[in-house]
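Explain my protein.
***
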Amino acid sequence: MAQPVEKYYTGQAYLALERSSEDKHEYYKGEIFAMGGASFKHNVLQVNLLVKLGIHLSGKSFRPFGSDLRIHVPKNTLYTYSDVVVVCDEPQFEDDSFDTLLNPAVIVEILSPSTANYDKSAKFELYCDLPSLQEYILIDSVTVHFVHYTKNIDGTWHLAETRDIGEQLVISCIGFQTSLSSIYAGK
């Protein structure tokens, strides 16, 4: 997580500041954290995945979104931005600004060297407080490495990972499948 900009804001004060800011910030338990930009490789992976998801989900009730849609986890106060998110039901928003999502089913984080440890551990734990979350996917932007958490019926999480570019990315809850080579294409 980045260094705090300032401490002890309410969630509503954060939202007011964030909605008027040109930069993105994350919020957690009263603190606001500046978020950095993404590398070329990071952006290639994100766009490749969003294009594939957009084609697959066209005409279906599921919706993919990029990194400009904020996610809020009310149970632990986190406000953040993921790289890719998929909503399976009607999107639920925090308020009538329609910019803060409450019910993602799939969250994808593309790992950058500066945020990888946070995304792999603490951020995943915070995301687990979302009842709607079914799958959490981590895609490394430096090397071919894919980590996939799938929620079991009993609420526990199953971990699968690969470093094999020939493997498939399967997102079960939306019936999606594509090759990792197509996600990493152009990187």
User: Anything to note?
Assistant: The longest helix spans residues 40-57. Residues 51 and 64 are 9 Å apart (CA to CA). The chain has a mean pLDDT of 94.
